[in-house]
Design brief:
two-stranded antiparallel sheet, 5 strands, single chain, elongated, 26% helix, FAD, alpha+beta, FAD dependent oxidoreductase domain-containing protein
Length: 132
């Protein structure tokens, strides 16, 4: 299985293969601005399953337990709270109190996917723009 991402009109849809997990996948997502409830809702879970299996039908066709959504082995359903920032992520350097301050926050729902790239940019800023 490969990683997939689709940013639709309403919601992001992503499929991330968990490393070293015997082909376990993380399926998501949902974007709910200013909603901080950690509750998992069945209708959102069903919507995520519909969107991800449409994006990558191999999730169903390669499933040894059957080729319907009901046949998938779901290990866990969780809601992730991912703080965002109006205007997008902030990755900047700033002089503060005579010291260098690197800002790297506010990635919202794409922090998992963009984390390594954001960290790389933050390190480059800390090094003054030098290549690693």
């Amino acid at each position: 299985m490969e990683n997939c991402l689709s940013w639709g009109e309403r919601e992001p849809t992503y499929i991330i293969k968990r490393p070293f997990s015997n082909d376990q996948l993380i399926l998501g997502g949902y974007y709910q601005k200013d909603d901080w409830t950690p509750d998992v809702l069945l209708e959102q879970t069903q919507d995520i399953l519909q969107r991800t299996t449409k994006l990558l039908p191999k999730i169903l066709t390669d499933n040894p337990h059957g080729n319907k959504i009901e046949d998938l082995e779901i290990l866990r359903v969780v809601a992730g709270l991912r703080p965002g920032r109006h205007g997008g992520a902030r990755i900047e350097r700033e002089k503060f109190g005579g010291k260098l301050l690197i800002h790297n926050y506010g990635a919202s729902g794409y922090g998992y996917q963009a984390g390594f790239g954001m960290a790389h940019k933050a390190v480059l800023l800390a090094l003054g723009g030098s290549k690693l």
